[in-house]
Amino acid sequence: MFHHKSYNYSFLVFLMMLKLFIPSASFSHRCFNTVKSRKTEIVQRQRYPILKSMATQYTINDDVCPPIDEAELRKIVQKHCECLQRFTKNKPIAQHTSAAFDQILPHIDTTKKIILDSGCGTGRSTLLLGERYPSHTIIGVDRSFVRLNRNCISKKGGADSDSNENNQRPFQAVSSNVLLVRAELSDFWRCCLDAKLEVDQHYILYPNPYPKKNRIKKRFYAHPSFPIILNLGGSKIVVRSNWEGYLKEFAKSVEYADELYVSQEMENLALPYLQDAKVGPKERVDKTVAWTNFEKKYDDVGEKTYELILRKGDS
Length: 315
Known about the structure:
alpha/beta
């Protein structure tokens, strides 16, 4: 009798485990409907333009990520501006970034203007910039080998993509005027300054870095390296995102940096970009070309995207 009960209990456990690992008809039906509903949403947004103004599954706004308190952001930014020398002294440049920079330096034609594409991911934006500015040298920088090796040139087997060994090289010359480099961003920027490379334009197109409030100090404008972005200079700094609040806080950070530099009588790295910072970001209207994979994804579902352009004015 005891054996019979044990057998029944084991059989019940077996049935419960089976249910966990084999999806039920209703579960499969729900999965199918989820995929179907997302496809339907995309079609509807393309068919009915009014829906494009509505939120999508990618939307990040003030409801999802409330803006940080202005006093707190001012304190963070001004501290970083005041303590930049301490930051660079206490944080040595990563060895792999320094080595990568040394290797690409001979490939940079210093007679041409340089465009920097920071956080370039798969290099889609870098290649498009190379086509748009054929007389410039375009340098795309990302920290991930995996993302960089997904660029369309490597997928087609062109340029430096002929071996697995090349997939681990710190840089790829993917066209006559485009270089993709694996490096840490803030360290690469410092290498550019140390080598006195003059950056003509700087693009930061990664759309929504670290949206959680407890990770704000990892966002570009609240990171200790923010003054380095201003110091790199260039005729313009272009930042894009589907998160308007992120771009607004980026612009406000330029204003907070200016306040600190004026009050401390320091070299004012923010002043050249102050006028456009006060204007703030604008909605990206021309969507004929999606510069990044993120932008393409947002455009496909009718997601709004925004652009902050900081043009260098008279200082």
